[in-house]
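Q: Here's a chain of 174 amino acids. Please give me its 3D structure as tokens.
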Amino acid sequence: SKLEGKAKKAQENLQSKGQAFQRELAEAEQKAATMSASERQATEERLARKQQELAQLNQNASASLAQDEQSEMTAVYNTITEYLTKHAKDNGYQYVLTYSKTNPAVIYADEKLDITKEVVAALNKEYTSKKAAETALEYLVDTMGTTNRGVKSRPDLIVLNQTEVPAILVATCF
């Protein structure tokens, strides 16, 4: 995923800079005996600043990754919530309760009422459809040189929503 790629890139960057700092530190330690007191002090101050910069870079990268992860989780939560709202309306449900092992809102429910498999299957179908549409859109934009206006969901179109397989309606050059 994008988040894993970003984390790997940040780790590689930090590792590279950390190794460069370690080499510079080792070099300074080797030359310390031949340095004057003022040169040694200036080198120590410079290395201390670099060490602080490296620590700050690590902290910033961690904060950025945490923020990106939170954004991803919020997007997933919003997608599931939007789908559940639609699913509940379409199927005449009066309530959809959340469940968490750490903070359960439902103590007992008849297993016949569990719609988890149904929801996961429908979410996967919607995800597959959206990914297929995004792939087709990317290909069309690249091939035709048109403007990418994004994938639009159209729940009002029977031709798209009453199918057994994922369906894509392409409208170009408008």
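Q: Can you summarize the key feature?
A: The chain has a mean pLDDT of 85.
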